[in-house]
Write the structure tokens for this entry.
Amino acid sequence: MEPTLAELTDSMVSTYLGYRGGPFIIITDNSRSDIADSVRASAERIVTEVRKDVRIINLDDWRNGAPLTHLPDGLKEAVESGLHHPDNNYNLLVYLKQAVDEERPAMEQIANIATPRGKVGGLPNCTFEVLKEAYHPQNNPDFGKELFDFISNEECVLFVGNGTKLFVDINNTRFTPVNSDGILIPGKPANIIPGEVYVHPENADGKYVINSSYGPLMDGGPFAGNYPALEAILARNPIIWKIKHGRITDVGCSDKLIRRFVLNYVFEKDTKYGNGDRIGEGGFPTNLYMMSRKLTGNTAMDEKAEPHIGHGKGHSERTRCDYESSVHGDALVNGVSLFAVKHNKWFMLNGIYRPEVFVSLRR
């Protein structure tokens, strides 16, 4: 029997957001107002000892028909005054809105205000189908924990397949690996969709062939809302990165429009820090239900279903990455195999994790 929207948001609010009363700000827009209303209703249904203060901020009330390229003073004050509990375990802010690339700076300003005050999470481009897939009972949190332990004791992962041959060096003493299981903790902004394990690579070298999806093309980009078109193009004309010493040195793609877009996003978009070409993330999916399904075109979900490399931002607030970037682009690959050099074993073959390696997959 298919779950209702109310049942799904009840699960999200109680389990993943961990709402226990106190201030709760929901950032939304007209496209996601039904989900925001359901999340608010779920929060109001929870019995808490701390007085609840649930507020919805609808960005369409502030946009005036155009994306918010900066944070208006009134909106800034609404966020600051809304997260007022002295204990940051009780301040909560969640994004449930359409992803708009031009609004990234304003959303980062909101995150910078909210993060020191409490828990911050996002579910951009959220729909009923997204909620249903994200919180499906087939997802196995034990596997996420086991993969996290495995990666935490690794030094180098080799990505191989469909033209890809990329060495990703991991230094878990210098940088912190992350088990992104969808559960929010104070001071650590996170995607509230379970799950993936990700690292900030110390180095990366080789060739990376993107045959599945590239986030910036989807999330507010030229293929927004039309993943089947991008999927078909990349199957014939994949994006190819040459990577040396942890930086992308060249971008190839026989589709000229896509190549120009990716070149701009990698080498020109980050005018503030100049780090758009740096490899910021190596991601390993752990949502077994999503891995058994087709991609959706929503990168916040799809990165939980396929291995990926991200450039630009290295999630310094969680990984201790030692640089900043104003961009982040996740590049997904399907059919890839993963070899753990220190463990001396293949732990994924053709996009499927090996039960011989992970006990939780044998249950």
